[in-house]
Design a protein that fits this description.
Blueprint: E1 5-10, H1 13-18, H2 24-27, E2 33-37, E3 52-55, H3 58-65, H4 69-84, E4 89-91, H5 94-98, H6 103-109, E5 122-125, E6 140-144, E7 155-159, E8 178-182, E9 189-196, E10 200-207, E11 220-223, H7 245-254, H8 257-271, E12 275-282, E13 289-296, H9 306-319
Parallel strand pairs: 1-2, 1-3, 3-4
Antiparallel strand pairs: 5-8, 6-7, 6-8, 7-11, 9-10, 9-12, 12-13
Helix pairs in contact: 3-4
Length: 329
């Protein structure tokens, strides 16, 4: 009889609910896995034995960056534990995850394969006051450099012309580093992709921005987390967002699932992560695929059987030799 293996979980309650992992212990009873919630306010060594730790510590990072001393102590305790217990598999290593907490480092680590996809032209500025020194082509998205874990990391602006650049000074603080990403016309449909090791790929479609024409003249401020998640033809609140299901159907018919799978495999080879997500736009005129964002351990909320996928992925990792860098092969 195979011995039960113990997996420590470091997740916020919100994240557990989003991913339907609240009752993962009950779900995993027949799997030979024992899940325990780790308390980072006390030594993790007192909560062993552990064969694996699975985490999403962005909430702790957010509080730590905001000056929360308890959160800082918790994160330092977790970092120390990870580095001092190489025989406990960490899903995923903190240095790998850290690269996706910052949009600049994300774009730098995710180099394109031009036979599969491109990455929109992206520029960086230490703050919005430097924007006038850059050679910008409009329209563009202006985003905080921090991808998560800090207040306002999902507050963005779609800027149609240089005349609207001054508006950004009201939106970003003088010390906020920002990135500028070209707007890709994509018929108002975003392709949302989830990846789980070794090769589980799930494709969904979300409403997105209409192709910009000359009638679009004002900067559009928005929270990317509050954009509509479903195509609803009755929706009239988001006049810059495509809500017609026919638009989704048209883009879905063009998407090549095999190509998306190959893009996911390419990104996994670069990132060496177990769970991640990425967003793709299909350019309206050329059909070119553009990866515009990559994030660590998204909600997987559209994936109905994610708890089963989660358990299967962890079981496979536990059966594989632990690499020197404690990461997926």
């Amino acid at each position: 009889m195979t011995a039960t293996q113990t997996i420590g979980m470091v997740f916020s309650t919100k994240k557990l609910k989003q991913s339907r992992l609240v009752d993962i212990s009950k779900h995993a009873r027949s799997s030979g896995l024992n899940f325990v919630d780790l308390d980072l306010s006390r030594p993790i060594e007192d909560q062993m034995p552990l064969d694996m730790v699975v985490h999403k510590v962005s909430d702790i990072v957010a509080r730590a960056k905001a000056g929360d001393k308890n959160a800082q102590a918790e994160y330092e305790r977790f970092q120390t534990f990870c580095s001092s217990h190489p025989n406990v598999r960490i899903v995923d290593p903190l240095d790998k995850v850290a690269k996706l907490l910052d949009r600049k480092s994300t774009m730098n680590v995710c180099s394109p394969d031009h036979a599969l996809f491109r990455i929109p032209t992206t520029l960086y500025a230490a703050n919005v006051h430097e924007l006038h020194t850059l050679d910008l082509t409009f329209p563009i998205f202006c985003k905080p450099q921090s991808a998560c874990a800090v207040s306002g990391s999902h507050h963005m602006v779609l800027v149609p012309s240089s005349l609207e650049l001054a508006q950004l000074q009201q939106h970003f603080t003088p010390n906020d580093p920002v990135i500028l990403q070209e707007f890709i016309p994509h018929d108002g449909v975003l392709v949302k992709v989830y990846f789980a090791y070794p090769d589980h790929v799930f494709i969904f479609f979300r409403p997105s921005f209409k192709n910009i024409d000359q009638g679009f003249s004002k900067a559009l401020f928005f929270d990317s987390q509050k954009l509509p998640k479903a195509f609803d033809p009755e929706s009239s609140e988001q006049r810059h967002i495509v809500t017609d299901p026919a638009a989704r159907d048209a883009v879905e018919a063009k998407v090549d699932p095999t190509r998306i799978q190959r893009i996911a495999a390419h990104l996994q080879r670069q990132l060496r992560l177990t769970f991640f997500g990425f967003d793709v736009l299909l350019e309206s005129t050329t059909g070119e695929y553009h990866v515009i964002d990559v994030n660590y351990f998204p909600s997987f909320k559209e994936v109905d059987d994610f708890p089963d996928i989660f358990i299967a992925t962890l079981k496979q990792l536990l059966e594989e030799p632990l690499s020197p860098n404690n990461q997926p092969q």
